[in-house]
User: Fold this.
Amino acid sequence: MAEWTPEAKEYLEGYLRQVAALARQQGDDADEIVAELRGHIQREAEEAAGVMVTLDVLRKTLSGIGTPEQVTGVEAALTPAWRDKSRGAAETSSAPRTGQGATAVPVPPQQLAPPTVVVQQPRARSGCLSLALAFAIMAVVSLVGLAILGIIVSIALPSLARARAEAREKAAVENLKAIASAEEQFRSAGHKDADGDGVSDYGTLDELTSEGALDKKVAEGLIGLGYEVEVFLIPTSQPRGPAFTCMATPEGDSSSGLRLAARGRRRISIDQTGEVIFPETPPTAGRIGSAGGT
Amino acid sequence: MSESSEPLNVDNWTTQLRKGLLELCIVNLLAKGEIYGYDLVKQMAQVKGLVVTEGTIYPLLSRLRRLGLVSARLEESPNGPARKYYALSREGERLRVVMNAYWHELTEGIAELHKGKEASHG
Assistant:
């Protein structure tokens, strides 16, 4: 079954509408006539077209069917034979009847097209429909594009934020390891014995930098990464000897572990063993005693 | 005595003559048996001298059906929409006989007229 172009469809409907109107005027069964005529025209046009019934193919088909006036008998449908024979071959070939061979009746071209009102109305409507269709397609494409963009952004933005948070954490860990190394250096050099038990202790960040064990840029680097840095010191009177914990806390979020997790940033700490840990909550004052401070 | 100034319109005369013969051709075609509407139209279009636009047949068939001279039935088609088949009713067959009788009488009369004319000239 062949496809029909929108123009051909509109043209056929306009033609059949006029046949129906004229048939009713004649007192005929318009629905029956139109149904039969439609089937006839569709078959003729599709056989002539093969794949696609265009307006041109339909017009040629209708030239064999007759104008609405001819079909309904309002106008003479039978062309006088004597006049047909007297016509030149050129005129006959200008308006051929499809599939009629030697008995073909040339229908004057001006009789082929349905009246202006019927023809032009579908064309005008076709233009409006095409424009409306174009706008509709553009709107749908835009919406689909926006939806795709939204999906991409919703996927990409969290991934990007997570990647940046991970990069900051990695840099912060390196800085904490540098601080831990400075603490060991400070203690080995014996710069401090806070409780006077003859065993060297760890120092605060100020003590580390003032004694040259730590480059001040390391602590500042942590601050630049958005962390607050604290060192908690444990006196040597503890059974396990002197200890320290250096804690890097994301700025402004020292009280809510939940909020930190939501932002993809965590507290990071390191102690005298060199182990880096990500505690959910900061150590309490009770746990670290009174020896802490930056 | 008034005279018409308009000459005889031969176009109208031949049109009216053949228009009346369409029904005669249709009933004779249907007398051979039930026929699909499309095929009937195609066969009608092939009748020599009757030169007719195909679309005119359907209103005629519709009128004949409404007059009870022709019956129609739909049959499903695997190739598209249902097809309408037409057949001559008993009333249509009676009319066909009358129409043919009149047609033969008329053509014979005209032929006799021509013969007489030729004889008078000969």
About this structure: The longest helix of chain B spans residues 90-121.
